[in-house]
Each structure stands twice: as structure tokens, then as C-alpha cells.
Specification:
77 residues, alpha+beta, two-stranded antiparallel sheet, 29% helix, elongated
Length: 77
């Protein structure tokens, strides 16, 4: 087997960054296409598949309770 030849000139930084930027853009687009959204069967909220809904339901069962967000009252001095 023959050895691979060594490059005769150094690869330009702009070329490297350009190729890497193209690679990242393709991967990012592929990941955005693979995110699967679904609706909760109980509440009708939009959620990620195989995850519990924001209201705490998963496969029609209540999995966890959502903490109520009450505003903090000001303390009078």
C-alpha cells in the first residue's frame, strides 16, 4: 500500500471555517427537522413526544403536580 501524500500547502483558515460552518448548518437543520411535536390527549397542549405535558400528564395519567406561580408580595418595613 502506498502512503498518502502530505499536503504541499497549509489549508487556509477561512476555508476551514467555511467548511465547518456548512457542516454545522446542515446538522442544525437536520436536528430541527427531527423534533417531533405532539398534542396532549387530556389537555390538548403542544408537547414533545415521549415527554410529559407542561400540565403534568403523560399517556392520560397525572404524573406530577405543577407548582403554582404566585407573585411574591412586597414586604413592608
Amino acid at each position: 500500500m502506498s502512503k498518502k501524500p502530505t499536503p504541499s500547502k497549509k489549508q487556509a483558515v477561512s476555508s476551514t471555517r467555511s467548511r465547518y460552518g456548512t457542516y454545522v448548518a446542515k446538522k442544525r437543520k437536520k436536528l430541527q427537522d427531527t423534533v417531533a411535536l405532539d398534542t396532549c390527549s387530556v389537555t390538548g397542549e403542544v408537547k414533545l413526544r415521549h415527554f410529559a405535558s407542561p400540565s403534568g400528564y403523560y399517556k392520560g395519567k397525572k404524573v406530577f403536580d405543577v407548582k403554582s406561580s404566585t407573585p411574591i408580595q412586597e414586604i413592608q418595613v
